[in-house]
Amino acid sequence: MSLGDPIRMKLKQSAAKIDGFIEEQLKPRRPEVLYEAARHLIEAGGKRLRPYLVLRSCEVVGGDADVAVPFAAALEILHNFTLIHDDIMDNDELRRGVPTVHARWGIPIAIAGGDLLFAKVYEVMTGAAGALSCDSVRDCIERVTEAAISICEGQVLDTSFPSLSDVSEEDYYAMIGGKTAALFNACSEVGAIVGGGGPEEVERLGGFAWNAGIAFQLVDDYLGATADEETLGKPVGSDLREGKKTLIIIHALGHASAEEREKIERVLGAEDASPGDVEVANGLLKSLGSLDYALESARRYAERAKGLLEPFPDSEAKRDLLELVDYFMERIY
Amino acid sequence: MSLGDPIRMKLKQSAAKIDGFIEEQLKPRRPEVLYEAARHLIEAGGKRLRPYLVLRSCEVVGGDADVAVPFAAALEILHNFTLIHDDIMDNDELRRGVPTVHARWGIPIAIAGGDLLFAKVYEVMTGAAGALSCDSVRDCIERVTEAAISICEGQVLDTSFPSLSDVSEEDYYAMIGGKTAALFNACSEVGAIVGGGGPEEVERLGGFAWNAGIAFQLVDDYLGATADEETLGKPVGSDLREGKKTLIIIHALGHASAEEREKIERVLGAEDASPGDVEVANGLLKSLGSLDYALESARRYAERAKGLLEPFPDSEAKRDLLELVDYFMERIY
């Protein structure tokens, strides 16, 4: 049994609870197609990592995870809203093994479906006020909103990178910070607030999740460059062909000779690059040490995340969060 | 001097205050193109009817309009978010005399720009908490969210109508209720809450604005069918050619002979309908009494709106709201 098995079971248990709650919130109203479109990706699957962060962070500060369920659901709903809109922006046709919302219903319904989910995030949070002080709810709403703004900024940065010739490591981290880590950060902050954590605990758990989110994204990019087609769910070299500026690419371009650089740039953003050219470029990402560099960076963020949990007393929830980070890293092997 | 002049001046005064506040909230951050796109339609103009409703409703219950400024701004931001996304969904290239956001920056930036505005609605509201009780802010957030959900539903209904052969009056009112009246309703409710109004006052002002919103939309549809190209800003018969199912069309189709029905349906949704055919169809909307029917309906909603204000003591703000309804109706003459 690999490390991933108990955590996978725990993710499933928490997912079942969240999914039941979300289903209640998205009961069809008129026009039904809008609600169908909004539920589509949620029903198609997903690991529910973000709700898991909310629930376990709530428990780490001694709170009752049941009280956090609506907030965990709200953050999963927010995540799915961003997926629907990102898929339109990135022109992606498949996700979680199913057609994306716009591929199935067209762009207008996909835009409205995403907007509906975004509104539902707030409906769920304000509706969950009963068990919590109004100030705590407002604090949660503020942090979720801040994350939503960061996601918009990160997504537009991501969209702009393929057409820029000079993207720095700093740009890359600003982009994944906005697109991925800000939401992770909000999840743990909200969980800690709902659990009654003090300001220092809230910031610390937020920092944990931020660093874990950066590690998660770095691993995602690493897998995008190394996994085979079956694991990846899309052709090898897709990231290269799409012109994505991952840390791997940025490192490689910064360390390549003029000739090597030319070989990488030949396939970067070239949808019709030949498999042979992709193989050559992929080989360079390895020989230039760029894959190792990204992996090392991911490990550093993962360690930083885990280090931030040290001051918390031992608990099952704390061990779960530490294991979650290991699980992010373990996907590589 | 027509009735519209003092109200136009008052609208301008209140708009100046709101615009300054909004500008502060949308100060460019990175990536700047996102903020530029988000500000585009707001900077292009608009009458700021919704903030006006917020401020005057606040005063009608004895509140200080200055406290309501952030909420008035939030509701204008929400309105502009929906315009950006609606323009994508409706494939509209021009609004307020400028290219729409997606026409200028493309669909991805327009989606993200709208999403950013939607998030800003909540940032502004939670940030305005100082002068108000937390419970009042939460109440406002709930009502704004409810309106946002109605707008999504109304927009999808609107999108679906051109392809439906049988749209009833009830369907039409459900659609404009969601697309237009729900936001008007939220504006006056929020204004009344911020102004310290009791539950009965909040509901009554909300009802006023709901009915005024329905009247406003009916007049808009009337103008869409009768105004000349210059007033309209688009070719005569555009609504017909786009296949919009306004109350006018629904009435006409329900009262036409088989032959007349055929003449209307020939241009309904036919982008390339000839000017002659459009003129024939337009003539039928008049001779079947459909234009008068819509106008009568608008007048009825306007009277209902004004009637709901009766119990409030006389004040400048109350007179302003009554005049606003007259101004909606006056656009016809």
Task: Summarize the helices and strands and which ones pair or pack.
The structure is a homodimer of 333-residue chains.
Chain A lengths: L3 H22 L6 H13 L4 H12 L4 H26 L3 E2 L2 E2 L1 H5 L1 H21 L6 H27 L8 H26 L4 H28 L2 H4 L5 H4 L5 H9 L2 H10 L7 H13 L2 H20 L6 H15 L3
Antiparallel strand pairs in A: 1-2
Task: Summarize the model shown.
The first copy, chain A, has helices spanning 4-25, 32-44, 49-60, 65-90, 101-105, 107-127, 134-160, 169-194, 199-226, 229-232, 238-241, 247-255, 258-267, 275-287, 290-309, 316-330; strands at residues 94-95, 98-99.
Explain what this protein looks like in three dimensions.
The structure is a homodimer of 333-residue chains. Chain A has a single domain (4-330), classed as Farnesyl Diphosphate Synthase (Orthogonal Bundle). In chain A, helix 4 runs antiparallel to helix 6. Helix content of chain A is 77%, strand content 1%. Chain A is mostly helical and 333 residues long. The mean pLDDT of chain A is 94. The first copy, chain A, starts with a helix and ends with a helix. Chain A has 16 helices and 2 strands. The first copy, chain A, is globular. In chain A, 52% of the residues are buried. A two-stranded antiparallel sheet of chain A has the order 1-2. Chain A binds chain B through residues 29-31, 33-34, 85, 88-90, 107-109, 111-112, 114-116, 118-120, 122-123, 126-127, 129, 134-135, 137-138, 141-142, 145-146, 148-149, 152-153, 155-157, 159-160, 174, and chain B through 29-31, 33-34, 85, 88-90, 107-109, 111-112, 114-116, 118-120, 122-123, 126-127, 129, 134-135, 137-138, 141-142, 145-146, 148-149, 152-153, 155-157, 159-160, 174.
